[in-house]
Sequence to fold (237 residues):
Amino acid sequence: MGRAVYLIVVALAMSLVHPAQAGFGFFGDSGSFIIIDFGNGNEYFSLGPSTSPNEHFSGKLLNENSPGGQKPFVRGVDRLILNGFENNTFENGGDNVLTAHLSYRVYKQGETPGDFLTLDFNQFSSLANPGDERHEITDAGVNLLNMVPGITGTYFLEAFAWAKIDYASDPDLLPDDDVIWAGPAGTIYKSAGGSPPVGLFTAKFVVEYIPEPNTAALLGIGVLVIRSVRKKIKPLA
Fold:
């Protein structure tokens, strides 16, 4: 089954799972995807549960999808581009999904992770079932290999999808102030700001650092070559 046909089937199924009552959330099946380009175009990896043909992101060794095979990435040679995400959500009963985002960070194994960076959507479309929507960005162009230091090792790409909503069915929350997270078991987590309680998805990749020769080293090699050539040239009689 093609990916586009599969998502239409999922959207239609969600109309049965989520009848017309106040509610919102990510699709329980294939609600979110992270998009990575290894050099052959965008590849979609599912975040959370999915019966789609796409590979799961969490626990993935990203080197396996490199055109060069399962070998370490080399910065400046190989391609590992985070191009975005796709979030598929539903809304009804006056509740609204307003925005979609993907937060991510890269860190070396054994080191303390830094702060998350965030991608925002730049494309929106309505799906087959009323209230079902897709927010996405597919051309972010984040070079993940440029985010790692010049050190050979194993690195982790950690990510989670989230969306901002107008939770009109809850009188205790003001409009536009709530956030939902796509959790690892398909659960929708909501939090009035702050960090996600759970729902981090992690893949890893291995990088080999090959230092580029600096200018001084190249000049030194040039001098040695010139001296060697001079020694081999005999003076004329």
Observations:
- The chain has one domain: 3-212.
